[in-house]
Fold Alpha/beta hydrolase.
Amino acid sequence: MQANIQATYVQPAWTYSPGIWRQDPPVPHRDHVQSLTFVLIHGSWADASFWTPVAAELTRVGHTVYVPEYPGHGNDPNTNVSHSTMTKSIADFIIQHNLHDVILVGHSFGGSLVQTVSQLVPDRLKRLVFLNAFVIQDGGMLADEFPPAVVEQFQQLIKSSGNNTLMLPFPLFRETFTNLASLSDAQRIYNGVKPEPARPFFEKLHLKKFYALPIPKSYVHLLEDTAIPLGDPRYGWHPHMSSRLGLYRLIQLHGDHMSTTMLNGELVARKLYEAARD
Amino acid sequence: MQANIQATYVQPAWTYSPGIWRQDPPVPHRDHVQSLTFVLIHGSWADASFWTPVAAELTRVGHTVYVPEYPGHGNDPNTNVSHSTMTKSIADFIIQHNLHDVILVGHSFGGSLVQTVSQLVPDRLKRLVFLNAFVIQDGGMLADEFPPAVVEQFQQLIKSSGNNTLMLPFPLFRETFTNLASLSDAQRIYNGVKPEPARPFFEKLHLKKFYALPIPKSYVHLLEDTAIPLGDPRYGWHPHMSSRLGLYRLIQLHGDHMSTTMLNGELVARKLYEAARD
Amino acid sequence: MQANIQATYVQPAWTYSPGIWRQDPPVPHRDHVQSLTFVLIHGSWADASFWTPVAAELTRVGHTVYVPEYPGHGNDPNTNVSHSTMTKSIADFIIQHNLHDVILVGHSFGGSLVQTVSQLVPDRLKRLVFLNAFVIQDGGMLADEFPPAVVEQFQQLIKSSGNNTLMLPFPLFRETFTNLASLSDAQRIYNGVKPEPARPFFEKLHLKKFYALPIPKSYVHLLEDTAIPLGDPRYGWHPHMSSRLGLYRLIQLHGDHMSTTMLNGELVARKLYEAARD
């Protein structure tokens, strides 16, 4: 034992001659950046412009970025779209553009689309990245991921919409989607919001295949996101939904649900790259 | 469907001509700072000087700041004050100084005073801000918010005080109120501490009105605060007590229970402003 | 009451003459750095070189650092070592080098050794520091701290080793021990990993004395560590295991289980000092 200890005792040099250690520590080096192909899937109450600053930054540093806008969003006036229609449109987009080795990124509602799209075109995908995004259980639906009182509130708003859409009142949006932003930024973001087609919130998703796919996964967690009320461990982005991924890579940053990504593209692009690289 | 996809496909430009995107991302801009009126309510084992660095910084950037010191603290030798006496003194202060549109900020014990003061002068208040502060349930008391073993320890300390006060031993204070500070800073802060009147810890608070008030609320969470023991989800600042606020704005920063606010006024003032602005 | 309020009303000066306050706030000062003696205990799948950058930095700023490599690690080919053999070797090391007032730091598995070593040489120790390290219950074992599904996976890997060791597959290691690192850094770290002697994972530890020792304790929490799966409150570094320490000082930083310490010695050394100082 003592011999072993003597042999493995690490250098009195650390004690008496610190100088020589200055040459030794591994120098953190800037790794060669991988050139990746990103497909970015926005969430509810958003359109492709949600990703503009992130896409610009990812492109600037050498990646290839696609931002499909799926049915029921942007200029599409159809408010009765289903989750499977959205899913198919994104899968078609990936096939039509002949994309391979895709980093498929979903934000918020987009997470559920990452799950369903992965079932249609698994061979095109290199990694799935969830940015404070839903990870739905097999047979579950989005509405399962909110406390009943919130779902009830949503249902009243949907009923009063007259066209099966859900629009968030500004005070709720300001405090829980853009809590870190200034009022004028929050208002500007809110002004771009259209009522969200409600149907996909209540559609059961079949995700058995997703949960069997061997595609690597990452979860990027924005730490100040309160879009799903905190305090009940049966709800929430992380670790509640993230842990459903099984083995995944965790990346965290300070940010809220919506404004950080829209206002600080450089930061979020950097974290998405850390999530996406091999 | 395909037409829709084609129509909403966002620019091959992102892929092939990153240059043009450099002009497009929304530039985060420095919003015009709102000039706000803050009333800052310190917590237990503190007096108005707790806020000096924060108040100085808030004032420097253009806000108006009031720091009332309530009965049983500072130079007031009365150790038998009640929660309602403290509450009334702060409400009177707001009325006497003819304050309106007040951002009422409470730290720690001060959170329970924010709750009760808001019931007396709701029309004077623009927003309630809790900085790792108690949010007591209707009919509850401060002692409810500590595990029974801690309450028992407190009761022994109170008993041994001889005058119904509670003084924290330095080792406890150093590790759980000033964990991020140097020893000399922790000692300097501790040297300013007076035994805390214990009566309000065990007084039931009637807060039905507070929970019905439509005044906007924010919770500012210091991430390294261990003043309430961690690890039991039935206790703690955030998300346990914060979630009682219902809809609230979350702001987070790295910091401990007491020293960060007293030593890094600039940081805490910035976060309080982010919590307080419209 | 009113008189009291008048007396304690803190300065209209804050409102009207901010200038004078610029001189008043306590200036955060660089405290004189204490010169401390660190003994750094690495964890599983590591050897003394794990601490090289941290030890270099601690030494550079004036501390004395010892990094014992314990049996079953580094150049010791013995894979059948017990927890008590490891414990005794470290205690012997401390005695042989005549160390006193030691800051005993354990990372990961090293936390359990900090616990057992403290029982053998309590009078030599000034403070115990846990860096995302195990804090085992009296009568418990390391295997208790992983969900049963993970333990089962470990047992299969041990069985297939043929020599009672446990080696982590690279994909698991990359995502949960080095999630913040580049692939090349993760590979470089993994290339230095040797299969870990499995016996100590399943040995019951008698820790009654540890839980009665009055030695101050700190827990340094790396926020992006997923080496123990997250999402189940019955498992995890902090606050699950940290809270077993009773009174302890919490320090937090962003980092993963292994790469941050090995690649960013300056940051981790600074946090260890904040954890270690009086």
